[in-house]
Amino acid sequence: MADEVVLLDFWPSPFGMRVRIALAEKGIKYEYKEEDLRNKSPLLLKMNPVHKKIPVLIHNGKPICESLIMVQYIDDVWKDKCPLMPSDPYQRSQARFWADYVDKKIYECGRKVWTTKGEEQAAAKEEFIGCLKLLEGELGDKPYFGGEKMGYVDVVLVPFYSWFYAYETCGNFSVEAECPKLVAWAKRCLEKESVSKSLPDPHKVYDFVLHLKKRFGIE
């Protein structure tokens, strides 16, 4: 019996992009269902009753929630093609550590850049750039965080590249000027079809951020 795979998602979500990239890397066909987060579907509420958030991966009727867990699940289930996690236990632990760091820092720090002004925004920019520099240091001279091939941490982090333009424009700074190696890495990832087809146009993301700023009264 063929696998039935459904992804409940919202197009600008960097968390959903991770899952899209992982599925594309594995060559998995799936049904994409776009969610309206202001009017969540009964299916989303049923499949993720705890957090009621996207993304949700539904595999043969069973839900998997939280993007880091979903990417690992995809790697475990379809392990024969394009492994994302290292085989060495220590390397796996390090990949999980940096993925956790990205999850805890990048989204929230980036969000502060476009939701604040003045001194608060200056502090947010400094913190955000500091986080990126730390990640750039971890990347070092490797082509990918996964080494010679794109791996788990790459899949977890690269979706935020589609948000960089919004952060830069709202915060009046350049990620490339601060972290040239990290931007070169992101562009390298974008050469892969699994990434380029999973990430939205950065200008479209910026328009979405402007819409949010207006909705929340952040001018």
Automatic annotation (TrEMBL):
Enzyme class: transferase
Stored InterPro entries: Glutathione-S-Trfase_C-like, Glutathione-S-Trfase_C_sf, Glutathione_S-Trfase, Glutathione_S-Trfase_N, GST_C, GST_C_Tau, Omega/Tau-like, Thioredoxin-like_sf
Molecular function terms, GO-annotated: glutathione transferase activity
PROSITE patterns: GST_CTER, GST_NTER
Domain of life: Eukaryota
Reaction catalysed by this enzyme: RX + glutathione = an S-substituted glutathione + a halide anion + H(+)
Keywords: Transferase
GST N-terminal domain segment(s): 3-82
GO BP term, example: glutathione metabolic process
Occurrences of domain GST C-terminal (ranges): 88-216
GO-annotated cellular components: cytoplasm
EC number in record: 2.5.1.18
Membership in a protein family: Belongs to the GST superfamily.
Stated name of the protein: glutathione transferase
Organism for this UniProt entry: Tetracentron sinense (Spur-leaf)
